[in-house]
Amino acid sequence: MSKAILVSATAVATLWSAAAFAEKWDMPMAYAASNFHSETGAEFAQCVTDGTDGALEIAVHPSGSLFSGDQIKRAVQTGQTQIGERLLSAHQNEDALFGVDSIPFLATSFEQHDKLWEAAKPAMEELLESQGLTLLYSVPWPPQGLYFAKPVNSVADMEGVKFRSYNNATARLAELTGMLPVQIEAAEISQAFATGVAESMVSSGATGYDRKVWESLTNFYEVDAWIPRNYIFVNTSVWDGESDEIKSVVTDCAAKAEEAGTKRAVDYTDFTLGELKKNGMSVEPPSEQLATELREIGDTMTAEWLDAAGDTGKTIVDTYNAN
Ligand code: PCA
To answer: pTM for the full model?
Structure first.
């Protein structure tokens, strides 16, 4: 056999084995395809697919199309899918630590929030590992403000308003302000507002923009209550079964995605608030009275969180405050 034939036979064998062992991960994501988190997730998936020459392909499924937001963590834990993205604080009902990014007025700028995340990350990774999940990367949302279908200048104005919540902290905020919380995934909120199931929420300009809430709501108050995060996580048994080469490509792409996503969150803040205005909403800081009353409620919620999160929570907040 000539050398040329030998070489091509080897090349074919290599291609074959790559195809035979090519793997696919399905990545459910809860938010709209056009949302910056979803765009970042799609880039991450492409980076892994390209970086492994297709040996590991990641397919993204935004808008809760594969699993709805509230099912994504369970689907990854039980191995129904390999990887997913979810709002971290949505799991606050499992463990208070998951709500570290939703403590009112603790870390309200991106800079402060980065410090809080650095302080919380080791404990968060440990908690996720204890649940069979490995953290790959995490990206913040823009700061959270209050949406209403009428002007609101005090907590008294919120009495009896139907409020869309997305985690324990948002439901508690509703209770403490006399509103009526109903938990609804972001993918469903346009309909909830259109049908009157909800008439208010705390969220970012980004989600208001993604869901065109100006069709139903009129006022956005830049309360800067907190900055929650999404995180991308993989089933730990799946992760442990990967080669070092694959792991290193994934880790590399994850670091790039975290950086790109974080930058997008900052840029998206002004852009989306501008879009709310362009579409007829009033966008302004809260009145002094509203801000003061919300801070008092924030103090109550902070004390409650510290109580629930025990020593781990206290250490994180102390570390954050010391830096
Ligand atoms: N948007 C998501 C979570 C935080 C945010 O800004 C939502 O409203 O569900």
So the answer is: 0.92
